[in-house]
Fold this protein.
Amino acid sequence: MSLDRYRPQGQPQQKIRPEHLGRAAMVYVRQSSRQQVLEHTESTRLQYALAERAIALGWARSQVVVIDDDLGVSAATADSRKGFARLVTEVTMGRAGIVLGIEMSRLARTGRDWHQLLELCSLSGVLLADPDGVYDPGYYNDTMSEAELYLIRQRMLSGKLAKAERGELAIPLPIGYVRHPSGEVVFDPDEQAQHVVRLVFGTFRRLGTLNGVLRYLVDQEVQLPVRVHAGPAKGEIEWRRPTRETLQIMLHNPVYAGYYAYGRRQVEPRRKVAGRPSTGRVVKDSGEWLVLLPGRLPAYITPQEHEANVARMAANRQTAATPGAPRDGSALLSGLLRCGRCGGHRMTVRYHDGSVAARSAHGYTCAFYQVNYGTGGSCQHIAGPALDNYMTGQVLDAVAPAALEVSLAAAAQAEDERAMLDKLWRQRIERARYAADRARRQYQLAEPENRLVVRQLEAGWEAALAEAARLEADYQRFTEEQPKTLTAAERAAIQALAADLPAVWHAPTTTQANRKELLRILIEDITATVAGNSELVDVTITWAGGHQTTGQAVRPVARLNQLSYYPALLARVTELAEAGRNNQQIAGVLNAEGFRPPKRTSRFTGGQVRTLITQRGIRSQRKGQPAVLTSLPPGQWSVPGLAAELGMPTATIYNWIYRGWITARHAPRTRNWIITADDEQMRQLRERRARPPGFYTRARWAPPEQDGRQGVQP
Ligand SMILES: [Zn+2]
């Protein structure tokens, strides 16, 4: 026997020795399913022939034992196979000298239980045999060449594939599914887990982009329920932060549409890195999957929706990858816009390169003189999205008296969304309460002697209670934030008012090209004139048929001093600074009074105020009323003086000065205004003062949609 170890490879070894022949020859006959038993009678016959082979190898007929208890047993694990268990027992007890079966070498390499049997055989000095040969597990590794291993792998794969083709191979299940011990795949019994899956698909349906879904889930603090695959917590749900990749995998996975899919990831030999078994895997297109069986699993979405989702993601990717491709909202007005500065030359569209943020991706420019005469800069430039949005508002207002369909749909959507979130909240709280309850029971069950454990359990219980309380408080806040919902009657009234256009305009199927077409049907041309260098754009629309309307759009500007209300702003800041307010407070007042910073950002910050104050040297001014203003003759006023006289804020006085409604000049060598107003002018000012607040300001500074309502007729 010791010599055998040194025998060169490839030479026949004396494997069957007297100690083997002295024990039994076990013939193990198995087929995994009844169907196989019927279809593979040939192989069954072959397995019985193994008994003859044992006799040929030298065993006495009385020593041959056939184990066929597992014929037609379909379960794939050892515990449910009586025959296999019996075989293991025989080997362990040392009663077997050889085990014969079909493809023993293959089985020993693939199944975990078979591997265990192999080890037992090796320990007990038991041989293995199949129709191809006799193996000594003690020399197991020596007897298999690389080529043989490859063949084994191929046979294993084809076996797996055959199983997959019948939909019987256990495929890895995504979030939201579990497998029963019987092998059946069902929705995750955890209601919250199911709910989150539906939320993911619902949100994608609504928002249409992965990033949108991800942002939404993060905003709403929704986590994904992952069933742990291995380890002590196997099978339990672990709530994990959503990632773009996870969502992408979810939305691409056909399982959610009820498909049994196998071979979505296949190994591309050329991409394989030697020595790294998991490399070279590529995700194939759906047409190239090895197996795809519809309607095999419970579905969260329809196959149509799955296809639409995949197509949508592909389209999103394409849009992102194509440089300069017009995105949603780009250059709606190309070809319609004329310049009001230079006598109506057509304004052209300029697309910025990809480095510019998407919202300022295009702009309208009149470069008539520049292009045709090579002189000067452009007449005027208007950032595209600002004007596009304004025009969209105009058109919707003009065609549908109330552009309400959209807001109505949005309201309904918001309600559905609220309901879903509400449910999620309640589940979350229930879970937290349950956890607290469990912690309490654990604490109560602990042995009081074991202080360390008790203390820890107590801390755990407290933490669980605190978490439950926190969630309940958060939920309370969530319910209080609940937006008011429309009654059915209100809804019906609104629906009756709404026309089709807004819905068509905003429908996801409506392309930018469609919108341009709609505009061309409705509008002859548009003349835009930037007021000075300011943010205001005077817009004259010539509707089809020649009717004209005018309005004012607001464009982003780069600098504060381009703003039309810059003088009023400056005056207000000066006043507040003189009153001893700090930058932060000044910013707060400006925001409250409706001043807006340039670049269409929404709020002033303390930093912006500081810059302004430093640049203009406002703070260095001496506090208090300068002497020049304290003794003014009748008919002349300081700003605070007139404000007190008329009972109105000084900001409005500055505003009126700027607008030219008040006659004023600077006091010598200061920035303080001296106002001149006789009795008749004072009467007019009082009258103006009596008009409702915002009578003037709204028309000038309001967002474009509100501007548009004025004076627009279809
Ligand atoms: Zn021009």
In short: The longest helix spans residues 405-445. The pocket of zinc ion is lined by residues 339, 341-342, 345, 366, 368, 379 (CB under 6 Å). The chain has a mean pLDDT of 73. The radius of gyration is 41 Å.
